[in-house]
Specification:
With 120 residues, this protein is an alpha+beta fold. It has helices spanning 26-32, 71-81, 88-98, and strands at 35-45, 54-66, 105-118.
Length: 120
């Protein structure tokens, strides 16, 4: 899944002193400011009355934190992995082999907004 940029600009003269390209990561940005916005789009449907599809989206605003390594982070990693692995044993093997390299983030939701629009 592509990762969004922390900053994007069409003007070459714009720079951020704390987040200059190549000098900071998204984790560094979250340590500096924990505010996040997370958007999900989907639920596309076609209806009889119109040719253009209807699309649903939701935006979550909140605070994000990096979870410390430990039992809670491992439990959540396994819970997340079970969405994608067909068998629990397979997920357990992968977590045992590579789980230490994973970083788990937790978003505390402060506000949610959703809508359905017709894409014309």
């Amino acid at each position: 899944m592509p990762s969004p940029s922390i900053f994007s600009s069409t003007r070459k003269t714009e720079r951020s002193t704390s987040m200059a390209p190549g000098r900071a990561t998204k984790v560094d940005a979250l340590r500096a400011c924990d505010k996040v916005c997370f958007t999900v789009c989907g639920g596309e449907t076609l209806r009889d009355e119109a040719w253009a599809p209807y699309l649903q989206s939701a935006v979550v605003f909140g605070r994000c934190r990096l979870m410390e390594s430990g039992p809670e982070a491992t439990r959540r990693l396994k819970q997340f992995a079970m969405k994608y692995y067909p068998e629990e044993q397979l997920a357990d093997r992968e977590i045992a082999a590579s789980g230490r390299a994973a970083q788990m983030f937790e978003i505390t939701i402060e506000h949610v907004s959703g809508k359905e629009v017709q894409e014309k």
